[in-house]
Amino acid sequence: MRLPRFFARIARHADLFERMTEKLNVDGQMNLLPNAASVKKRAANRCLGCSKAEECTAWLALPVTRQEAPDYCRNQGLFARLKNTRDVERTHL
Fold first, then answer.
1. In degrees rounded to 5, what are phi and psi of residue 30?
2. Which pLDDT value is given to residue 1?
3. Which residue has the higher pLDDT, 7 or 64?
4. Mean pLDDT, the chain, as a whole number?
């Protein structure tokens, strides 16, 4: 893989990851983690290894607010934990 293509892939998956956190409304929760930088790094690496970028792009383009990441998402568990943490915090306010 040529270097410009590699960097384009990294940028694309980083964008998909950010858009997914926003779509699932867990971006704020992610940023509140005490180890947010390392969590994001591991999640970005999982995303970068995914072969479903086209499917992800199409899923993210749907106008409906989503509750869960799609089944093929390598970060589905992380997003579910973030959502659960957010929901628990809201019920204790």
1. -60, -45
2. 61
3. 7
4. 89
Q: Output Rg (C-alpha) for the chain, integer angstroms.
A: 14
CB atoms within 10 A of CB 16: 21
CA-CA distances (angstroms) from residue 67 to 8, 24, 25, 87? 29, 6, 9, 12
Burial of 11 (0-12, 13-18, 19+ CB in 10 A): exposed
pLDDT, one tens digit per residue, over 50-66 is: 999 999 999 999 987 77
Residue 21: Cβ-neighbour burial (10 angstroms; 0-12, 13-18, 19+):
buried
Q: Give the integer Cα–Cα distance in Å for 13 and 46.
A: 10
**70 neighbors 30 (Cβ within 8 angstroms):** no
Classify residue 80 by burial, with Cβ atoms within 10 Å: 0-12, 13-18, 19+: middle
Is the pLDDT at 80 greater than 60? The verdict is yes
Q: Do 48 and 10 contact (CB within 8 A), yes or no?
A: yes
